[in-house]
Amino acid sequence: MIVLGIETSCDETAAAVVDDRRSILANVVLSQLEEHRPYGGIVPEIAARAHLEHVDRLIAQAMTEAGLGFAQLDAVAVTGGPGLIGGVMVGVMSGKAICAVHGTPFLAVNHLEGHALTARLTHDLAFPYLLLLVSGGHCQLLVVEGVGQYRRLGTTIDDAAGEAFDKVAKMLGLGYPGGPALERAARAGNPAAYTLPRPLKGRPGCDFSFSGLKTAVRLVLDGLGREPDERDVADIAASFQEAVADALADRCGRALRQVAETHPSVSALVVAGGVAANTALRARLSRLAEEHGLTLVAPPLGLCTDNAAMIAWAGLERFRLGERDSLDFAARPRWPLDPTAQKARGAGVKA
Ligand code: KG4
Ligand code: ZN
Questions:
Q1: Are residues 187 and 259 in the same domain?
Q2: Are residues 178 and 252 in the same domain?
Q3: Are 160 and 350 in contact (CB under 8 A)?
Q4: Which is the closest atom of ligand 1 to the Cα of 111?
Q5: Ligand 1, closest atom to CA 161?
Q6: Which of 221, 222, 226 is closest to 169 using CA atoms?
C-alpha cells in the first residue's frame, strides 16, 4: 500500500510518499522561513501564496524521488486542518485534483493526527501511548488510544510552548525563528541565574500556561535598567529554557500518574512538534519517563517538525482500516483531535 501525503497548513510546503512497511519513499519539505522573516512571524496571506506557487512542483518532486506515477498510488492524504485556512485549501485542492483525475481514494487528515501517529511510522509503537505535542501552534497532552481515538488530557490556556520560545527570543533580540536561536544562546548561560515562575506547577489538571513566564522575562529585562549584554542574554535564555522544561515536565508527570490508572498498558512517552528539537527538554523528559518505568520516544527532528510523511502515514493508517473521505470535504481552520475534551479556559485558547 502506497500513499502520497501533502502538507500546507502552516509555513512548510511538503509532499511525501510512504508505504505500509513503514518506508518513507520520498519526503520533501520547503520552508517559507525567508518569506516570513522580515515580519518576525508567519503572515497567513504570504503563506497561502507561497504554497500555491510551490506545491505542484513539490508533489512532482516527491513522486519522482519515489519513482512512481500517480496511477500507482493507493490513496492521497492531505492535511485538511487545523491551520491557516488559505494554505490548507491549497493542499486540499491539489490532493482532490489528483484523486479526481486518477480515481484515487482521498483522505483529509487532521494535522494533529499526523503528529500523533508519527511514532508508529518511526518506532512501530503500539497503542496506547502518551503524547506531548509541543510546537509553535500547539501544546497538548494526549493519550493516543488508537487510530482516530485521542483523549486530550491538557492543552495551553494561552500561548503554545514554541510561541513562548519565539516571543522571548524576540525580546532578547535573537531573531526568528526563536526556538533554535534561544537554545544556542542558552548553551553559554547559567540556568539558575534568574528565578522565573513555573506556570501551573503543582496545580491540578494537565493544562499549560506560558504567558506569565513571558511577562516575567520582560520584567527581568526591564529590571536590568540597561541594554542586556551577551552574558545577560545567555543567562536569561538558559533560565527561561529551564523554566519551560520544568513546567512541561511537571505537567507530563501529572499526566503519567493519571494515565497509569486509566491506561495501565501505556507503552511510552512520545514527544513531537518543533519544540521537541530542544535538547534540554528531551533530557528532562527522558529522565521523567525513566522514573515512570517508560521510555521517551522522540521521532527524528525532520519528522517532529511539520512534514508530509506524517500526513501520508496517518492517511495510510486510516485507509487500511477502510476509511476514506469525500471529495466534498471542506478545509477546516479548527479541528480538535478530541471533540469531547473540555474547552480550556484562558485568554488566547487555541482549538
Ligand atoms: O512543529 P513546528 O515546526 O511548526 C508548528 O508550529 O507547527 O514547530 C515550530 C516551533 C517554533 O515555535 C520554534 O521556535 C520551535 O518549534 N522550536 C524550538 C526549537 N526548534 C524549533 N523551540 C525550542 N528549542 C528548539 N531547539
Ligand atoms: Zn505541526
A1: yes
A2: yes
A3: yes
A4: 7
A5: 12
A6: 221
> Which CATH number belongs to the domain containing residue 171 in this structure?
3.30.420.40
Q: What is the pLDDT of residues 147-165, one digit of tens each?
A: 999 999 999 999 999 999 9
The secondary structure of the chain in percent helix, strand, coil, rounded to multiples of 5, reads 45, 20, 35
Cell of 171: 525580546
Residues 70 and 144 occupy one common structural domain: no
Write the residue with the smallest CA distance to atom 16 of ligand 1. 274
For residues 180 and 109, membership in a common domain is answered with no
Domain span holding position 243: 129-301
* pLDDT tens digit sequence for 220-255: 999 999 999 999 999 999 999 999 999 999 999 999
Do residues 80 and 109 touch, judged by C-beta distance below 8 A?
Answer: yes
Q: Ligand 1 in contact with 135 (CB < 6 A)? A: yes
- Residue 265 domain-assigned (yes or no): yes
CB distance 174 to ligand 1 below 6 Å: no
- Does residue 158 sit in the same domain as residue 294? yes
Check pocket membership of 10 for ligand 1, CB cut-off 6 A.
yes
Ligand nearest to the CA of 110: 2
Question: What pTM does this model have?
Answer: 0.93
Beta bridge pairs of residue 109: 79
CB of 128 within 6 A of ligand 1: the answer is no
